[in-house]
Design the sequence.
């Protein structure tokens, strides 16, 4: 579904993503793990069109995304859930969710997707008129995921969804992300600081260091790798 080939991204001559290649399939979670500064967020920004690569190619369903505007990439079916959630704090839950559908005109389908969001996160339906700023961090992450669903994507880019959340909430959020991938048949590329949890919900994983893929394979195998366990899992 998503393919990245030999991608190079630099900031004023400083290489952040160094000839990186990966693949992510529909219906499953693919995770990126690595230390801060490894190039994970930069890669997501390049895929979503917020940064233009110096070289390489990004394909979605076999067609190039490289050089496309961010709004066109959203129309193609790729949606990013940014680090920090990026909500409108003084808008209601409902209004925040509907910002995700601002490029759509299919009203009946928009309503179906809204009901889908409420099925995943019943608390949002119960308090849809409440301002986003008045929710807990975990609930705000639910709103951010729901807003992404409202874009009707076929592929999600998640950037650090567990930041600032309690461990129990982290598990719930990541389990929901896995359920969305499997139940909706969409692809997910997940950047997550909690490497242990990310590897538990992912099918495939890539380890990044200084913008390069240094290890990749089935997530279950990487979670058992001694080097990965020592460097990223604290074991």
Sequence:
């Amino acid at each position: 579904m998503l393919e990245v080939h030999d991608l190079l991204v630099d900031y004023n001559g400083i290489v952040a993503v160094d000839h990186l290649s990966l693949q992510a399939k529909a219906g499953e979670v693919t995770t990126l793990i690595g230390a801060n500064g490894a190039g994970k967020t930069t890669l997501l920004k390049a895929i979503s069109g917020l940064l233009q690569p110096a070289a390489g190619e990004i394909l979605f369903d076999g067609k190039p995304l490289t050089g496309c505007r961010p709004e066109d990439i959203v129309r193609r079916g790729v949606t990013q859930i940014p680090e920090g959630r990026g909500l409108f704090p003084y808008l209601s839950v409902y209004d925040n969710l509907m910002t995700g559908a601002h490029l759509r005109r299919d009203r009946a389908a928009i309503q179906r997707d809204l009901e889908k969001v409420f099925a995943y996160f019943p608390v949002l339906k119960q308090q849809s008129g409440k301002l986003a700023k008045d929710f807990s961090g975990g609930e705000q992450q639910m709103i951010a995921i729901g807003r992404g669903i409202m874009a009707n994507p076929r592929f999600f880019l998640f950037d650090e969804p567990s930041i600032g959340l309690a461990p129990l909430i982290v598990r719930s959020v990541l389990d929901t992300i896995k359920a969305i991938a499997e139940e909706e048949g969409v692809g997910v590329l997940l950047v997550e600081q909690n490497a242990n949890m990310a590897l538990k919900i992912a099918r495939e994983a890539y380890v990044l260091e200084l913008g390069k893929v240094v290890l990749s394979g089935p997530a279950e195998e990487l979670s058992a790798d001694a080097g990965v366990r020592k460097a990223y899992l604290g074991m």
About this structure: Strands lie at 2-11, 14-24, 29-33, 55-60, 63-64, 78-81, 155-159, 187-191, 204-209, 212-218. The first strand starts at residue 2 and ends at 11. The first helix runs from residue 40 to 47.
